[in-house]
Design brief:
Elements (H helix, E strand, L loop, with lengths): L12 E9 L5 E5 L2 E5 L7 E9 L4 E10 L12 H4 L9 H20 L21 E9 L2 E4 L21 H17 L13 E8 L6 E7 L7 H11 L3 E8 L11 E7 L3 E5 L2 E5 L9 H15 L6 E5 L5 H7 L4 E6 L2 H13 L5 E5 L2 H10 L6 E4 L8 H10 L3 E6 L2 H13 L2 E9 L9 E8 L3
Parallel strand pairs: 3-5, 9-10, 14-15, 14-17, 15-16, 17-18
Antiparallel strand pairs: 1-2, 1-4, 2-3, 4-5, 6-7, 6-8, 8-9, 10-11, 12-13, 18-20, 19-20
Helix pairs in contact: 2-10, 3-4, 8-9
This protein binds S-adenosyl-L-homocysteine.
Family: Belongs to the class I-like SAM-binding methyltransferase superfamily. RNA M5U methyltransferase family.
Protein name: 23S rRNA (Uracil(1939)-C(5))-methyltransferase RlmD
Keywords: Methyltransferase, S-adenosyl-L-methionine, Transferase
Amino acid sequence: MGKVAPPVKKNEEIELVFEDITHEGAGVGKVNGYPLFVPNALPGEKALVKVIHVKKNFGFGKVLNRIQVSEERVDPPCNVYEKCGGCQLQHMSYEMQLDMKRKQVENTLRKIGHIEGIPIHDTIGMEEPWRYRNKVQIPVGSKNGELITGFYRQRSHDIIEDMDRCIITDETNDRLVEAVRAIADRLGISAYNEETHRGVLRHIMVRTGQVTKQSMVVIVTRKENVPELDAVVKEITKAFPEVKSIVQNINPERTNVILGRKTKLLWGEEYIYDKIGDIQFAISAKSFYQVNPIQTKKLYDKALEYASLTGAETVIDAYCGIGTISLFLAQKAKKVYGVEVVPEAIADAKANAKLNQIDNAEFFVGQAEKVMPWWKAQGLHPDVIVVDPPRKGCDEAFLQAMIEMKPKRIVYVSCNPSTLARDLRILEDGGFKTVEVQPVDMFPQTTHVECIALMSRVEE
Ligand code: SAH
């Protein structure tokens, strides 16, 4: 098979029937077994496709003309959907998005983890899968002497100039970004220019508490001294009573990283507050906080259900961030130990424990793979271990420590089915059994897949 030349040529136009969809949301159609990946094409569709790139075992194409249209196709409601690339699934019905995510979890667990024959539940979706993000960070540029704001065009650093809203973001955030832009423009604040490293205004970031409706505006500038900001503060606070905090962040570096080291409170409180379930969180400009609190609540309820706590258990929450899951679990556990590598996140976790008068949660700064063996050596015997690692999954040494600690249950929250599958395999080989898996749609309209798996220890 390897020696056979690809059956298509670059620039060739062919009729293609789509049978499948990739994890990135592209349609997959085959020519004599040779797959072509084509954006904006759905399974069941037929289209005239132009081949744009040919590789040995697969190629890429683009739709010239749709011949048969899927019933699952919907008109993307965003006017810049195809330029932006921030969303990848707006052309697909929400039902199909949820179904696709469930299938992705199922297939990945089978192929990579050899885990099958267990319940993989229907994806828990949103009733209203729009306007869910509580945070937006938008680059500022200029065009014809005017300030503009908008996300970058796909694979570029050109601002999409006709973007006046982002319909997966809280509406207040949209209005605040536009207000700051308009005021700054009127006051003559210049836009930062990446190439010359001159100009002032780099990004506008806004966060709004989903429950509390309190907003924080973060104005990211290249230099510290920007006298016009006083007037920006005055106008914003007058027009937006929901704004509780206005912060300047100074980022003097040549970098893609949005926030710089230094933040300066311009007006109001240093924190805004929000709630997930009964737990309150104080959020500063630099705090990590889940972007979709409605779905986060559903995810953590599931974590709590899978942990099945009675009040007598010792629980470890590894990769705990600002302690969101830990504090949720602490309500039902005897004791929760959280570990996280970012010191500022642990400071937030401790502050949030205090804020909620939770005194049975303790937080440690460190790498989970180093702290776990130390805990074990100290004689800590967790009944339940909850993990929520970054995309690359858990460290091998951490997994081994978990196996040796022999908890009754492991609850694994994952934002990447591939590393989840790899890690579940290791844990299964170490004496645990995967009981069930629940996908939860944290990021509607995008290809991100989040799920939660319950494992229990096989009795010897
Ligand atoms: N559970 C939290 C955050 C999960 S994100 C919540 O729901 O909000 C994953 C977290 O793992 C990040 O906060 C990241 O800083 C942390 N992390 C990454 N590598 C780590 C490691 N080796 N040890 C401990 N924490 C780590």
